[in-house]
Amino acid sequence: MHYPVTRLRRLRRNAALRDMVRETILTRHDLIMPLFVCPGKGVNNPISSMPGNSQLSVDFLVEKGKELFDQGVQSVLLFGIPESKDETGEVACQHNGIVQQATRALKKEVPDLYLIADICNCEYTTHGHCGTIVDGDVDNDQTLETLAKQSVSLAEAGIDMVAPSDMMDGRVGAIRTALDNNGFHNLPIMAYSAKYASAFYGPFREAAESAPQFGDRKTYQMDPANGDEALREVALDIQEGADIVMVKPALNYMDIIHRVKTSFNMPVAAYNVSGEFSMVKAAAAKGWIDEKRIVHELLTGLKRAGADLIISYHTQDIIQDL
């Protein structure tokens, strides 16, 4: 059929009709808010490059968790800034590690808030890389040991899900085995399966104090030019036991999100990362864009591309509109 028999504008005539035929609907259930926890008490350290976000001590993090939950946020992703660092990230495996403390406190005070822990070593190592350094590069298999120990320690603290972000080969299998061997058969894994060596992470490295002290992360994070490789990474993580797979960053990688969703029909998460967030905030501060409309459009675009879950620093800004 064609014009004038077919007039596509008929279904756009008013808001009620547009709502009825809307294909993609963003809901509060889709969103996960990242949070940064640091040592001390009464600490609220604003992150200059990420307006509205702060490093929070455990007491303030609990208050933030209550506020988010009351506003309708169901899940948060926790990142830790430790009191001290070491060469291997072993500090992240301690019973009283900073994210372990935060997990216990949040579970006590906001028990229905779903807690996901980022599993990586970059915030916990003196050199800022995601694992143990041998001969100037991250040693893959030694790093798996600390990642598995960190996951078990957080499971013991009461975390609801672990999310390995390191991009080591075999880490999902190592974590799944360690969790199962310690009785945590039902604890899910959300794997950062296609994580690119992106320029969009800059503000996060200020927030998590995790910038590498030498070199870069190109030997373990993916080349932004590659798409087929992402599917191989995702396939391996699924084989090793990932329950949810993730693409990171999000906006420049909507094609990867779509390919992953259509290829595997698995739950897919998209991480709307710090650089993507900060660009919107900077343009809005200049009055160049309508921030709320932009955010709704970009998050809806991620869901339309195939994302089931969206990790975004915009979550609190828009949650009450959903």
Automatic annotation (TrEMBL):
Could you say which EC number(s) this protein's record lists? Answer: 4.2.1.24
Sorted alphabetically, which Pfam families does this protein's record hold? Answer: ALAD (PF00490)
Going by the record, the broad EC class of this enzyme is lyase
The entry marks the following residues as binding Zn(2+), namely 120, 122, 130
**Catalytic activity field:** 2 5-aminolevulinate = porphobilinogen + 2 H2O + H(+)
Q: Give the record's keywords alphabetically.
A: Heme biosynthesis, Lyase, Magnesium, Metal-binding, Porphyrin biosynthesis, Zinc
Catalytic residue positions? 195 (schiff-base intermediate with substrate), 248 (schiff-base intermediate with substrate)
Which processes are annotated in GO (biological process)?
protoporphyrinogen IX biosynthetic process
Tell me the pathway.
Porphyrin-containing compound metabolism; protoporphyrin-IX biosynthesis; coproporphyrinogen-III from 5-aminolevulinate: step 1/4
- Which residues take part in binding Mg(2+)? 233
Gene Ontology molecular functions: porphobilinogen synthase activity; zinc ion binding
- What InterPro entries does UniProt report for this protein, alphabetically? ALAD, ALAD_AS, Aldolase_TIM
Where 5-aminolevulinate 1 is bound, by residue? 205, 217
Q: Which GO terms describe its cellular component?
A: cytosol
Which residues participate in 5-aminolevulinate 2 binding?
Answer: 274, 313
Gene3D superfamilies annotated for this entry?
Answer: Aldolase class I
Q: Sorted alphabetically, which NCBIfam families does this protein's record hold? A: PRK09283.1 (NF006762)
Q: How does it assemble?
A: Homooctamer.
Q: Which family is this sequence assigned to? A: Belongs to the ALAD family.
What is this protein called in UniProt? Answer: Delta-aminolevulinic acid dehydratase
The gene designation is hemB
